[in-house]
Design brief:
By secondary structure, the protein is an alpha/beta fold. The protein contains 14 helices and 14 strands. The protein has an 8-stranded mixed β-barrel, surrounded by 6 helices. The chain has a 3-stranded antiparallel beta sheet with strand order 1-2-3. Helix 10 links the parallel strand 11 and strand 12. Helix 2 crosses helix 4 (about 115-130) and helix 10 (about 325-330) runs parallel beside helix 12. The radius of gyration is 21 Å and the shape is globular.
Length: about 425
């Protein structure tokens, strides 16, 4: 790059504002303007079920908006982050993110706030893509092969996403037999409608979960699995076409060394809990299971993977928190065979990319994921395609902050035309791939 080009892609200014996420809570939005007039925007999502080792948001505390306001966070961007980044080249994402990491100086982004660093990192990347006159997904791909992701879509919400009426956090489907992404969305629509029909026969709903799925009054976790299996059949699909994915979020109900299911008033030790999930795998068409074991139980996660890692995708979310170091450590003890990638969980795009590369190097599955507190931003949809991640998880098939991501993939599919490739089964970890 010549000096004039580099000068034109330098960061000219950074602006931050408070907007509102899908739960009506304050969040951070960042605009980055380059010398050449190109600009980019990034928005920080927020999770309800959070791993203890993930990057933390900077919030005001106190009584205003339940302590969740971001006035202090915005000041950090205007005073510290802006001063450090203005003049740097937006095309050098690694240097941008390294500057944020060094400026923060903590392991969990508690100084600057993970909400600030991720929104800024995203905004710079978008500005760089705009400066290159490329869609974000294409800029990220850097002319390497891409695939449209296999979607993982919530049908029933539970756990922290739905008042803990059901212990398991997400009951999802994966249209693994779809021929195209458009076809996958049609299959999801049919299953979602069938689930609604079955629930209307059963009785009243309690509402809609955080991520747009149904919030039903089930009597047990198995009741939810039964209902979801019936919805798939009612929609006309077989196990090889549409399969079930579970986000257990086991840390949420792990107490005193045991797994305490509030819905059923039962307590299991680790061995009993693993056996129970094994029975679920034998009984229902489950192809993917996330955080089945408490995030601090390395031995338990390793045991679960040893037993089931060749028949089902085992995803680390709270367990891995989008950390390349944790991915590598898990690989050494054969814990998990897939990683959930949440940029705000680690704080920058470069750190997210490092976790992605560590997973791919070992033939793991990689799933780009939204958070329960989302916005209309479609960044992660482009990320899933541009990085050729293979899988995308953004919530359910209702609510615009969710559909915005699915619809963005449809636009990319249309743009690619005959060159569009749907990931399907090939997106799964090599250990279980057909």
């Amino acid at each position: 790059m010549d000096g004039g080009s580099q000068l034109s892609t330098q960061i000219n200014s950074i602006k931050a504002r408070r907007i509102w996420d899908s739960r009506g809570r304050p969040t951070v939005e960042v605009d980055v303007l380059l010398n050449n007039g190109s600009s980019g925007r990034g928005v920080a999502p927020a999770g309800a079920s959070r791993g203890i080792n993930e990057a933390v948001d900077l919030r005001d505390g106190g009584k205003r908006f339940g302590g969740l306001d971001v006035t202090n966070a915005l000041s950090k961007i205007r005073d510290e982050i802006s001063s450090a980044l203005v003049g740097l080249d937006a095309l050098d994402q690694q240097t941008i993110d390294n500057t944020l990491i060094q400026l923060d100086g903590t392991d969990n982004k508690s100084n600057l706030g993970g909400n600030n660093t991720v929104a800024t990192s995203m905004a710079v990347l978008r500005a760089a893509a705009a400066s290159s006159n490329l869609p974000l997904w294409q800029y990220l791909s850097n002319d390497k092969p891409t695939r449209l992701p296999l979607p993982e879509v919530q049908i029933f919400g539970g756990g922290a996403h739905a008042g803990r009426r059901v212990d398991v956090q997400d009951f999802m489907i994966m249209p693994i037999g779809a021929e195209t992404f458009s076809h996958a969305m049609e299959m999801v629509s049919n299953v979602y409608a069938s689930a609604g029909e079955l629930l209307s026969r059963k009785g009243p709903l309690y509402g809609v979960a955080d991520e747009g799925g149904y919030w039903p009054n089930f009597d047990s976790n198995e009741d939810a699995l039964d209902m979801l299996t019936k919805a798939i059949a009612l929609a006309g699909y077989t196990n090889g076409e549409v399969m079930i994915s579970l986000d257990i979020a086991a840390s949420e109900f792990h107490q005193n060394g045991n797994y305490e299911l509030g819905l059923e008033n039962r307590t299991y030790d680790t061995s009993q809990w693993i056996d129970l999930m094994g029975r679920w795998l034998d009984t229902y068409p489950i192809i993917s299971i996330e955080d089945p074991i408490d995030e601090l139980d390395h031995a338990g996660m390793s045991e679960f993977t040893q037993r089931f890692g060749k028949r089902v995708q085992i995803i680390g979310d709270d367990y891995l928190v989008t950390s390349s170091a944790r991915v590598k450590a898990a690989q050494k003890i054969n814990a998990c065979n897939a990683v959930l990638l949440k940029p705000n969980q680690v704080g920058t795009i470069s750190e997210t990319r490092d976790a992605f590369h560590a997973a791919v190097k070992n033939d793991w599955g990689t799933i780009v994921s939204a958070r329960s507190g989302e916005t209309e931003d479609t960044f992660i949809a482009d990320l899933s395609v541009g990085w050729n991640a293979g899988q995308l998880k953004v919530g359910s098939f209702t609510r615009s902050e969710r559909l915005a991501k699915w619809n963005q993939i449809l636009r990319i599919e249309d743009m690619l035309g005959a060159d569009a490739i749907f990931a399907g089964w090939d997106a799964m970890p090599k250990a279980i791939r057909k």
